[in-house]
Amino acid sequence: MAETTDNATGWTLSTPVSALRGVGPHLAGALEQMGLRTLSDLIRHLPHRHEDEHATETIASLADVPEGAVASAEGVVDACRSVGHGRKGRFEATLSDSTGTIKLTWFNAAWMRGKLPAGTRVRVQGKIKRYGPYLQMTGPKWATLADEDEDEGGGEPTIPRTAAGNGLFSPRSAESADGDAPRLRPVYPATERIPSDRLASLIERAVEAVVDQIEDPVPPAIVEHHRMPTLAEAYRRIHAPADRDEIAGARRRLAFNELLVLQLGVAVKRAHTRLKLRAPRLVASAALLEGIAELLPFEMTAAQKRVTAEITADLARPFPMNRLLQGDVGAGKTAVALHAMLIAQAAGKQAALMAPTALLAEQHHQAIEKMLEGTGVRVGLVTAHRRQDVEAVAGRTLDGNDPSRRVDVVVGTHALLSEKLAFRDLGLAVIDEQHRFGVRQRAALRSAGNESPHVLVMTATPIPRTLSLTLLGDLDVSTIDELPPGRIPVASRVVDPAKAADVYAYAEKRIAAGEQVYVVVPSIEPGEHPDPDAPVLKNVEEFQHELAELLPGRRIAVVHGRLKPEERREVMAAFRRHRSDVLLATTVIEVGVDVPNAAVMIIEHADRFGLSQLHQLRGRIGRGAGTASGGKPLCVFLANPRTDEAKERLAALAATADGFKIAEADLTIRGMGEFFGTRQAGAATLRVARLPEDTELLLLARRDAQQIVEADPELAADGHALLRRVLRQSHRGELNLVEVG
User: Fold this and answer.
1) Which domain range does residue 448 map to?
2) Whether the predicted pLDDT of 510 surpasses 80
3) Which segments constitute the Helicase ATP-binding domain (predicted)?
């Protein structure tokens, strides 16, 4: 309790921070910039770590603190001086109390001149060092001691006194400390204007005043079953722990709450889909399935047959399928999708396949049209670059009134979402590389028909289980975990750019043996990624001339995202027919490009690409039954990684070609929020829970959420009213990510 206590009568969680004694407009404004407007905000501002700190009452007792341990001291500055000149000068001070003195030193701290004049009463925190019989702290944190009044002047912060001695330790922590045992000091996300220590003082007072008003949305029976503290007690312990076990228990409870609310949202959506939405029943007879199998130019793998059976069963149900089909590069997802689209067509419905790029849409269209040649199934193509086609499709082709103009299967890009385009009767929507589309785009395609169509989303970026349960939790998941027979494993090498000439000399040998080569660079033209500390990035415009010198006499083609669709198609068709030896490209070839004779890929500046992106690129080679040279398909990552993260990415690629292992490594390296390269709008934010470390807790929350929703699908019971309110407040917009439509 502070010596000058707050008058907390009538305070609630929504009481503004300005009610705290000493928080005037200046400090309140700084807190608001941190998103801290109410006492509730302060309580929910969690420490990002806890430091062991030896609290002492006298400077003399610091002699008993182990060297290197963090300790605190209070005293008066006896003397101070600046040594050296300029910004790199050091500042020294001597702090004393009635029992002794300690030397304080700050390096590169010319700015300290005049900050701690002799006679200033100050509190310092830092690591203890010894020089012979003398004690010293180097670069300690410090704050002047004053009464609990706000410093409106913008000088150094002041620390109010409390009964605990300094305002930085909570009374609870102080009471639980055993003698000179280290105390656990919470360290908060802070700013230069409001350091962690000042926040600790404010948070301590907010917790003391109103933490018991926090309502716990989790039913008491669940809390008791898992032997967890109440929500209010968890917040109290995370801010003022008696020991490390209390920190772990409090964090576990807070993380469980986050995961439970997220899983409740997932479970409610699944229940809504099954109980409220209606979709056409697309029932496939045995004869139809046999006929579709005969259309395919190859026999499906066991894994393809398994997931096809799962999708076929979903299509026959009266509620919308909501399924994720994932499989590594080249696993045969398109054939599975075509199988489902033909079931829809046979039932008199239309099917749409939406791809993330025009190039991929065009390739899907060509492959499907060729496969369905002579069947009478009409296949259309819609891309934004071909406005006349969009208008023609909108005006006639999808209009089922004229059977001769009807299109059964439509392949396209986001242009399929055009308001001018109206599906007659969409029964199935297939979305390829689903993470490249936003929430609203997926929802728009789902709502394109009169009924809710079935939805199949596909990805060649395997999604770790922890993420599929969170970001994509309302989708059923099918996994193709087997590659078609005859695929040759790709060898991977990480090579220093200094040896690039050797790499291209080897590529020349493979070209001479009749094979083709991809060369990937990060940009189209110079100056797209300015970074004065980084090497100049190779780009298509300039590097094609250098490449011609490295591979003299070879036919070099160029493809990138700025080429017109017609030019892109011509370049890719020529490469596929082996009218060029080398394809210099950007990441436009990342997905969907299939050239069986391409056996070598060289990726320049590989450290500038994401892990999953590199894996996707590597998947463009080794797609044939063999190589002309008899050697293994080879992917060379030319890179000189400057960061630990880049080194980890390349090491993971060199270690395995298993997309699922790479996805797990990517999640571990980059974390959940950045797993998809750029964070999607609406991605649920987890502030406490950490994945994949908290996978066990996630599964626990998932099980509890499913049980709750099975008994109460809309959380309408009185006992679930608070859960329902928290769910709406926490994830109203964010949970759209797990809803395909």
Assistant:
1) 286-316+332-459
2) yes
3) 314-480
